[in-house]
Write a structure and sequence with these properties.
It is built from eleven helices and 14 strands. It has 369 residues and is an alpha/beta fold. It folds into two domains: 7-319, TIM Barrel; 325-369. The chain has an eight-stranded parallel β-barrel with strand order 3-4-7-8-9-10-13-14, surrounded by eight helices. Helix 5 runs parallel beside helix 6 (186-194) and helix 8 (266-274) packs across helix 10. The termini are far apart.
């Protein structure tokens, strides 16, 4: 009998913990439908705003970072939030919930520092049937120039206040999405919880410059002879994302966290669960590997549960957190282990000496007799 991969998070029942993260894989109803049919436990739509928010995307807007074998290990984007009119999203949300009523559809929202705009966006999305909200406090390029995205997420007071605006006008779960472009990701995460967020998502992309074209001397991606720093994702960010998810989960035990960052296979996803995430989001991986990658995630998680005797996904969540410690504690542990080993060795030597003495005594006695 296959393992039960479902998990309940903030009142939402996910058929499995694997969720399409906000971005190109969830850019309209058609592609979101493909994600649902491929087997993803949930989809977070591409971030939306009210129609009069200016959104103009660039071309090209992606750059790839490859290892010596040519494999893509890092991926930079300078893509903004959805440039579609919000009215189109309202229609898409309704279509999706009508066609996939049992699937988890989460709206990703981002707006300027204006209570009325955040609440209008929330209420109109809720009226279309979405199951929950993710608040984008973390887009690292473009909109921070106007005080949105990461600029808002780097200010814990704003995170707390804006989160409370949304929570006050909906009865549905709210997750605040954290930026990694900050010294301590725990501080805004705690502010989100104080503002009423049911959970947080972490991490969004890391502000980066992927490289420079050595022929033209122009940074990548090059647009009209120039470029900007953009959001870095892909396998290369996984260690950083795991550390930040761990930090949040250690600081706020029991609080729901949706882990994001560099998931390419089931092993990666399971690592996020082990350090405390309840769900695991994938965006860049789905873009480069295809939506069907979820089947390997499902199969791999089921096999892992069977191997270790886990009855539910919830049993995995945070299982590795107790093994994290401090440097000084590990030094003390290592010293203690060496002391015990030395005592055991000394005891073994004493036993050997005592045994040798007995043999000598017995030999001497036999010789005398």
């Amino acid at each position: 009998m296959p393992a039960d991969l479902s998990i309940d998070v903030d009142g939402l029942r996910f058929e499995n913990p694997f969720v399409i993260g906000s971005g190109p894989p969830g850019t309209n109803a058609r592609v979101i439908g493909r994600c649902f049919e491929a087997g993803w436990g949930g989809v977070i739509a591409k971030t939306t705003s009210l129609t009069d928010t200016p959104v103009v995307n660039l071309t090209p807007r992606y750059a790839k970072y490859r290892n010596k074998d040519g494999d893509v290990i890092g991926f930079q984007n300078v893509e903004l939030i959805s440039d579609r009119p919000f009215e189109d999203w309202e229609a898409d949300f309704k279509i999706l919930k009508e066609k996939y009523p049992d699937k988890i559809l989460i709206a990703s929202l981002m707006e300027s520092y204006d209570k009325a705009r955040w609440q209008e966006l929330t209420e109109r999305s809720a009226a279309c049937g979405v199951d929950a909200f993710e608040l984008n406090f973390s887009c690292p390029h473009g909109h921070p120039e106007t005080g949105m995205g990461a600029a808002m997420g780097q200010d814990p007071d704003m995170v707390r206040e804006v989160t409370s605006w949304v929570v006050d006008c909906t009865d549905r779960p709210v997750w605040s999405k954290m930026t990694p472009n900050i010294t301590d990701i725990v501080t805004p995460s705690q502010a989100a919880r104080e503002g009423g967020a049911h959970g947080v998502s972490a991490i969004n992309t890391i502000l980066a410059v992927t490289g420079v074209n050595l022929k033209t001397l122009r940074p990548l991606p090059t647009v009209q002879d120039g470029s900007i720093a953009g959001g870095y994702s892909g396998q290369a960010v996984k260690p950083i994302a795991l550390r930040m998810v761990r930090d949040i989960c250690q600081a706020m035990p029991g609080y729901s966290v949706s882990g994001i960052g560099g998931v390419w296979n089931a092993e990666h996803a399971i690592e996020f669960l082990l350090v405390g995430a309840n769900t695991v989001q994938v965006c860049t991986g789905a873009m480069l590997l295809g939506y069907d990658m979820v089947q390997e995630l499902i199969t791999g998680l089921g096999a892992f549960m069977d191997e270790h005797g886990f009855d539910s996904v919830q049993d995995i969540v945070g299982k590795s957190l107790p093994y994290f410690s401090t440097h000084h504690d590990l030094v003390d542990r290592q010293a203690e282990a060496r002391r015990i080993k030395a005592e055991q060795r000394a005891g073994s030597n004493r036993d050997t000496e005592w045994g040798n003495k007995n043999i000598q005594d017995e030999t001497s006695e036999l010789t005398t007799n």
